[in-house]
Amino acid sequence: MTKAKPDGSSNEAVVIELNREAPVLLPESAPLIGSPTPRISTPLNDLPSRGQEVIEFCKELDIDLMPWQKFYFEHALKVREDGRWAHPIVTTVVSRQSGKSTMMMIRILAGLYLFEEPLQIASAHRLATSFEQFRTIVNMIETNEKLSSQVKRIYWSHGAEEIQLKNGNRFMIKAGGASARGVSKPETVYLDELREMHDLESFASLRYTLLAAKNPQVLGFSSAGDQHSTILNSLRDRAIAASGGAKDDAAYFEWSSPTDEITLENAAFANPALGHTIHPDNLRSTFNDPKDVVMTEVLSRWVATIQSAIDSTSWKNCADPTLDLDPEKSTWLAVDLSPDRRHAALVGAQKLGEETFVVKLLHTWENVLQLDDRAIANDLAVYARKYPLEHVAYSRRTSGAVAARLQPAGIRIVEMDSDYPQSCDEMLGAINSGRLRHLNQEALNIQILSSVKLPRGDGGWIIGRRASQAAVCASVATALVTHFATRPATEVDILTG
């Protein structure tokens, strides 16, 4: 469910409101307690969980888990009927010093001693981070007689530290990048400082070592990121899409403040350790630090480079499945391709009245290697003949090759790169005002709600194709057709005098 502000608007594309174990805001006489449940989450399920085993394991180790950590283990370790993890990828975003490193180390110990996972690998952007975690885990083992008695040997090799148990289970740390290639069939991979992972190769080198694993799981941890947080943004976008109806078994939990307001009450949503291991005064002392630092480190907010583009409630309110395009009406088309040229979309628009218009996702293309420009142009030409076409809008950066095939066929085209920021703003205004109507198509809904806002210039913005880290071709094409569908029928559309 979308959490709305008092005026009915919303700041996030998808916010899942969960049943909280305790209120964030307590009576004035009581201390302020951080939220035990995430503000943003993928849909939860009622499957059984091995989380309780971990909680009991912590009691044996005299580790007192905070409520938010118990929530994590309960929902991250759900299992299907066949015993496999329900969530092969689990991403957790929370402010610093909340206890996520401790939580990760507990999960590593559980993999060694409870789940009998043959091999676990942990990697962080900074090797020093992984090494410090390794040192702490070793200390936890060596100070516990029951745990230490099961150790075969511990290797202290820089960048390849390893713990081996007598039962054959192993845990090792690896540097980021391609160093994990060649590691044989790890069962579990831990990725810390996910926001610092900027390239797909580093992620792939670890993620795809799991393909032959019996029951693999990737567990990522991070504080909030920015436009350069390629992998983290991709996982967050998947969560937004999943909450919008996309089929995805990845889990995502985000403890973050609902607004950018720098207050203790707002920070309580992003700091689940508040009132447990974090004193309120310690948070207050950070509030005068540089704003971008406070946003990411304290409020767990994505800095201004990454914002949700479309409010889900406003988009939902524009839905009317009874509508369709009229083969007799003037029509605008727009085509867009993803930067990797694996996805493309065609959107059409027609006026309904003086102020309103309807958009429809007409066609999508996918190819795991690369789309064929000629095939797209041939398919598009069918729609250009079906409707009374005004013109086809496109971006030279993504769809220039397609457009070049349309023009010789007599299909009118118009390049939109310079007008793209204005088109995005016009689409947002049309959605928020209800002037844009759509058919409630699932594929279009997912792409619209997966779009992120990328600032441009002095107050301008665009739907970031790369920043979204998901196929948003249909969103871009919708913005392009909106530019023309919102044009007034006459030159003068306001009254003066």
Structural class: alpha/beta
Query: In DSSP terms, counting alpha (H) and pi (I) runs of 4 or more, how many helices?
Result: 17
Task: State which percent range the strand residues make up.
Answer: 15-25%
Major sheet description: 9 strands, mixed
Any key phrases for this structure?
single chain, 497 residues, alpha/beta, Rossmann fold, Nucleotidyltransferase, domain 5, 2 domains, 6-stranded mixed β-sheet, 17 helices, 18 strands, elongated
What does this structure look like?
With 497 residues, the chain is α/β, with parallel strands linked by helices. It has two domains: 40-305, Rossmann fold; 312-485, 2-Layer Sandwich (Nucleotidyltransferase, domain 5). Helix content is 33%, strand content 19%. It is built from 17 helices and 18 strands. The chain has helices at residues 51-60, 67-76, 100-113, 127-142, 145-148, 200-207, 230-243, 264-267, 280-284, 291-297, 312-317, 373-386, 396-406, 420-433, 442-450, 465-468, 473-485; strands at residues 40-41, 89-93, 119-124, 151-155, 162-165, 170-175, 188-192, 217-222, 251-254, 307-308, 331-337, 343-351, 357-366, 389-394, 413-415, 436-438, 452-456, 460-463. The protein has a nine-stranded mixed beta sheet with strand order 1-9-2-8-7-3-6-5-4, sandwiched between helices. Strands 15-14-11-12-13-16 form a six-stranded mixed beta sheet. The protein has a three-stranded antiparallel beta sheet with strand order 10-17-18. Helix 13 (396-406) links the parallel strand 14 and strand 15. Helix 1 packs across helix 2, helix 3 packs across helix 4 (127-142) and helix 12 (373-386) crosses helix 13. The longest helix is centred in the N-terminal third of the chain and has 16 residues, at 127-142. It is elongated. Residues 1-29 and 491-497 have low confidence and may be disordered.
